[in-house]
Amino acid sequence: MSVGTVIWLIGTLVLAGLELAAGEFTFLMLAGGAAVTAGASLFGLPVWAEIVIFGLSSAALILFLRPWLHRRYSKPRALDTSPKALVGSKAHVLEDITPSSGQVRLDGSIWSARAIDPAHVIAAGEHVIVADIDGPTAVVWKE
């Protein structure tokens, strides 16, 4: 391993560390260019060729990979405020869940509830998981 390779590897680590502070993928692309150049320097290329490889590989990463990464990780997540967003949540049984009635406290409010299997009765005080929301009724199953 030559001195040039070690310098490019140190540059890769420094640029990747700077990316942690910046967070907009530019330094990460430069770190990728430095890593490519470190690999190329193993073949004993002259310094001017290493600099050209660094410039070309960094430019290619910035032009082609960075926009895709930016779109992929910068789009805001949609906030789901529909009742279906409660599926998978835990609920506390307030009133025994029988085939005809039952209540649970779900996400701070009281919901009517029924069990997935109508043959089972879930006692008050138990914890359940919401499997589905059917109108104003939470369909639940025991943990």
Automatic annotation (TrEMBL):
Subcellular location: Membrane
Main location: membrane
SUPFAM superfamilies reported in the protein's UniProt record: NfeD domain-like
One Gene Ontology cellular component annotation held by this UniProt entry: plasma membrane
Membrane topology, record value: Multi-pass membrane protein
Boundaries of every NfeD-like C-terminal domain copy: 84-142
Transmembrane segments: 45-65
UniProt KW Kinase keyword: no
InterPro entries linked to this entry: Membrane_assoc_protease, NA-bd_OB-fold, NfeD-like_C
Keywords annotated in UniProt: Membrane, Transmembrane, Transmembrane helix
Any Pfam family: NfeD
PANTHER family named among the record's database cross-references: INNER MEMBRANE PROTEIN YBBJ
Name recorded for this polypeptide: Nodulation efficiency protein D
